[in-house]
Write the structure tokens for this entry.
Amino acid sequence: MGWVCYPWGQRGGAAGLRGRVPAHLPGETVIAGIGATHSELPARASQLDRVARAAGVEVWLTLSAGAQAGVIGDAVRAFAAFGTRALLLTRLDEAVSLGGTLSALATTGLPVAYVSSGQRIPEDLAPARAHQLVARAVYLARSADTSVGEELLVRRFGGVAHALG
């Protein structure tokens, strides 16, 4: 399968993408990195949907593995209205945790088709494997220093416990 990447901002947004997508061969995958902020998601999703419908192509969402669970859920919901078929989960190498990401994705039902552990898209893309994602999440959770000492708990919640008691 061939891959072609178009960064949204560098290629003229929806208008630029609209002119490029139909020029590709059937079976070729066009990745459009939309680079949307949280507030821009609905508008970008709508623009991408119009381009995809005009070109007769599927929409797959690309998200960073390091994004917050709420942002991932919002992005998936914004694109779900436009028939998003699958997800490309990128930047696994930069994620300090995957639990929230995997939980958010599990609740959305959107399949993760490909993952990447590098900056080069599409060269670093690999087929997603559930057991590898879970193993990575467990590894990150075990290697993170998440222990909370009693002293910290007393400082943060001691006054609250005293007020309630």
